[in-house]
Amino acid sequence: FGSSRSRRARIPSRLRSGAAGAMRCRALLPIALAVLIRAAAVAANLQHGDVVYLTVPRSRHRVTAQSDGSVHAKWSHKGLWQRLTLERAEGPGAVRSGDAVLFKAWTGKRFTAQGQQVHAKWDHAGAWQRFDLEVKGAEAGAPVAPDSVVFLTAHTGKRVDADAPDSPGVVQARWDHKGAWQELLIERHSTIPQCKDVTADRIPDLLTVKAVQLPAALSAECGGFGIKTSCRHGFYAASPSTDSNALLYNDAAGRALVVLFDGEDAVVQSKEIGSEEVRGLQFDPSGEHLVALVSGGTNVQNSPSFFVKMRAPSLEILWRKPIESPMVGLEKWTPDNSDAIAISSDRYVLHSSGVCREGKWCAEHQGDLLQVLNATTGEQLASEGKDWRASHSCKQMIGYNPRSDAFLIADAGDAYPKALQYTAFAQGVHSRVNTRFETWGDGRGRQGVTQGGIKAEPMGRGFASVFSLGPETGEPDRLYFATLRENATFIEAPRPVFPNSSSTQIGGNLAPLGGGRWLVAYTEAAQDIITGYLSIYWDNWGIPAEVRAGGSRLAVLGPSGELLGTPVNASALGANFPVELNHLVERPSGIGWISIDGPGSSIAKLVHVRCDRESV
Fold first, then answer.
1. What sign does the CA torsion over 95, 99, 102, 103 have?
2. Model confidence pLDDT, tens digit, residues 153-198
3. Do 94 and 87 touch, CB atoms closer than 8 A?
4. Partner of 540 at 20 to 30 A CA spacing, among 111, 183, 461, 464?
5. Who contacts 151 (Cβ-Cβ below 8 Å, separation ≥6)?
6. What is the torsional sign of CA 409, 412, 413, 418?
């Protein structure tokens, strides 16, 4: 970053004089504002994966897909049957005038032009499902803003008309005209819960806890070198666009079990997907697939991990594929509790750590890895992998934002660098930007960052992050908050959430509430309970039982990390959450997490902070 003196030396002398500097700043202000306005406009334009409506401007009727596959424009409703997922034929990115696009209905079927008829009976994604989208009055390549008037041209060369005067309610593609009958208004619908009614003082009234009997008891085996959190917790996932939520855990027989719940948190079904240790679980952005990560076992060096792709809600296994690094061997010195996976519509990313393989320059040292699978085939994309961002990166974080199609990656190193380092990965390309928050490390594994999480900003292209940092001087770990752009640069640099507190705050994670606000979960203890800044990464954290049972806290933060209201004692509400594992996931009607009572337990508690979902 450089010293203030070196920065001053690079500033021209004419700018260091008060009057000239002020004039120059005033001259630059319009440019800066223009850049900000352009950035905001980019974020506001339609993207691959957005949920949209198609509205007939004359009648205000909306294009509707019914369960039998018929498509019409007879109603002005704005509900589930009218919601369409906009897909670029070329994949993720901004939608532009002239792009070939597809429209996926709520049934999972795509609009299809068959002769003159338009229907949604098939899930194909071929030529018959592609429509050239043209913005009225715009040049080719212009971005598509919400509420634009567009024309849709089918593979036949005919343009779609809907609810025309000569055929009320009918959606078809019969002529190549480009007139009023062919005009459609494309509107954006947000599928992200904007929980504006969730405030710190209302959380006790909005929170529900449901105890669920598991198909088999949780593993009680906690021995061995490694955190082995699979004997205490399970991985939880939910789809923000469907009612499905799921749990992945190891049972007492060592099986990796997936349990699927419905919107009322009742068990729908369960499935065994292997006998390896569980490592992560997420839905893909569409909610149509559930992706699990399992691994060969603690301290089994060079054992690969496996991604298992399942169809939701059937849990049919579509494929099971290995993933590993040519440089870093998994399992020895691989933390169980890292936020290890992130899922996009076309890439599954593993971000973990292990021991450098024999014959490599870093042999027998510990560091991080990032490897990628093709989401469709399960093929490992070797050219997109990148390892060793930090030495002794014992703690990893990763998040994905579908609006920017970007992954944000964080590594906490004890050397090269001695910092928490954020980088970006988008469309197969790793950014050259490394944004660092300097911490401390001894070059032998001891370091200050103990836990953290990254989540996407729901209506923008960036991210927010929380993490715990224990000073080298031995003071208690403090919870920090930061926001970042899609290129991994800071918007708000890390700041302590509770700067005047003397308590320990660990195990943090977060979820968006809307309006720039965040719900943050953490575990609090009156005393300093994290003292071994090496051993905690692979061994039992040594957290006292009373802290596990009574230390769960929830706080609401503003856009800059400012505390809004008094933190809530979630433990007192019977809503504990895992300490070691990241938690808090978005659901269609709020935010949820899951906890299991302890080793050998057969009861899981599904916790739900419900909110009045508002579309933005």
1. positive
2. 999 999 999 999 999 999 999 999 999 999 999 998 865 557 888 9
3. no
4. 464
5. 133, 134, 136, 159, 160, 178, 182, 183, 184
6. positive
